Amino acid sequence: MSSAGTEHNRMIAEQLSGLISSGRFVHAFLFCGGDRSAREEIGAWFAKALLCEEKSGRPCGRCRSCRSFDSGNNADFIGTGLPEGRASIGVDSIAELQKKLSFKPVGGKYVAVISDAELMTAAAQNKLLKTLEEPSGEAVIILLAERRDAMLDTVLSRCSVYVLEEAEKDADPALLEAAERLHSLFESDAPYYRKKECLSLILESKEGTKELALNFLDIFEDVSADAAVTKASAAGMTAAELAETARRQIKQGHSVPYTLKQMCLGMKARR
Ligand SMILES: [Zn+2]
User: Which listed residue, of 70, 155, 180, 255, carries a Cα 20 to 30 Å from 48's Cα?
Assistant: First the structure.
């Protein structure tokens, strides 16, 4: 695994690698959570490792299978997902996949990856269920989905489910600056109106206020948690907890200005 992987995702890759070497695994996997690129990356890595002729648990990168995988010509790999110009993955896409799986693979087995699997209609998932229940040969089906709850319970029960973690992104410099300013005001016990100034960037934004606020709270929580560790700041710990609460409330639909105000008012530096 490379860059998009967090420590947690690399641990998942290790587990998967162990499964391949042991040869004992189910024939359907669901990777959900994380960001799209992390899901795509682990899905491709796992597919390549499953197809690798060395069977060492990870892609060797040298065998015929690995090389054809890299050039996008591995006949035993089937990649599918949202058809162009469509809003969902329908039964026709699954029928097409099942047709491909009915032919004999070149190597030992087929590995199919379904990207954006959360966009499969219920009918498509039901159709896929048949393949999950009675896989043709040794075929392995890998589903990549944003959310686990978008999948039918019957599909989930057939899959080995792995929840990925979001890869760290570089923070927006303006939000980072505002978060650092707010944290230092918190530590110095500055009055509310000064803390509120740090939030103007979010409160005055017309579009994506909720998204922006959640993004800001993530950064603020990181800044506070860092301060708690590096400067043994008691204020840092409370700030991280307040940020966590605020984020949960905003996700539940509480008003952004009200929640952020409550967060600032709750900031009392403990000394
Ligand atoms: Zn290989």
Answer: 155
